[in-house]
What does this fold into?
Amino acid sequence: MDTKSLKNKKMFLQNMSLIVTLAATLSLMQIGSNMNIALGQTDVKTTVQEISTHINEALKSYATSIGEQYFEGEHSPVNVNTTAIENAPGVGEGKLVNTSEYGNAQNHLKTAQFMFLNLIPQIQNTNSDDVIQIQSGLLMLQNIFNYRSSYSLAEDVGFGVVLSHLDNIAK
It folds into this structure.
């Protein structure tokens, strides 16, 4: 087995264990959600808007960092072929033309991930599928950024998975 496929399998297993951990966290955090809202936690719609802004900024910075043009897409659900992400050719070999913007993209994405994890206990009457799709989409975006995959793939995941399901939570 070559080093590249071993690295890909290791990364895949790490991401899968993170998804399982996030799902368990979601289950545990639902218990305390009523108490968090009673204690006056941040308004869900405001937080969702802030997360959405960070995702948009991450996508803008990522596009700039790899020399692509940013286009704001619609927030309509898209079925993303996750196998294509896992088996993407040229993993980690994408061009990087602006390291500063690449760092900004990573920072905005990390902030969005952190904010979403903190939002989970406050979400009431939300379809759990939306929460799972957002968590999975954030992890996919992280992999796309790490592997410097195409902007069109980042755009599909960012707008079609993460932001479309965030819109459902804000309603």
